[in-house]
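Hey, I was hoping to borrow your eyes for a little while. A protein chain has come my way and I'm curious about its shape. Take your time with it, there's no hurry, and the full record follows here:
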Amino acid sequence: MSVLKLIGVLLDYPRDELWQHGEELLEACDDPALSPARRRQLQAFVRDLLATDPLDAQDRWLATFDRGRSMSLLVFEHIHGESRDRGQAMVDLIDAYRKNGFELDARELPDYLPLLLEYLAHRPQAEAKDWLHHIGHIAGMLAARAAERQLPHAVLLEILVEAGEGKVNLAVLRQRASEEVRDDTVEAMDRLWEEEAVRFGADAPSQDCDPPHRSPARAQPREIQP
């Protein structure tokens, strides 16, 4: 298992079968491309995950990535928001998958970060590095927010930043994250629901770029077929 595949698996919704592959996950942490310190951090993350009850780990994932948008694992949500450009970007990404012999087996959005990492794990190293370089600022901001919230996932995202070899200043991003108003509180979620009141008829918003609603059902096992 490559390090990109491993990071994607660990960022994804922790399905029950993950606990059946603990030894494989720990072995994958010992990747020579990583520094000894990063290997130890990854191993600690995996051991902590394996020591956690699956239901508790799943609840923690939902609380981390499914509340608010600042920790969204949908890459284009951070780039395009709800604009129509996001829809076209996803179409282009699906085309790239297909041109390289990959088909999505489930209805997961193509810009879902664990899915993108699974794809990049099968691509040439230079191409994968170029992708990670271009999304480095997104991974960096996610890493900064995770660190600010004292989430263990911060190390996974920092590794992605390092793999892209971009000029991402994590210290600056951490400072910015510390000054942000969090969008995952009860009050923030209530405001979001009020702002997104359902409208019907001619006043209804376009569905092309609606933010997806992630849930365990959407994060069921999916494969990318080469």
Observations:
- The longest helix spans residues 84-99.
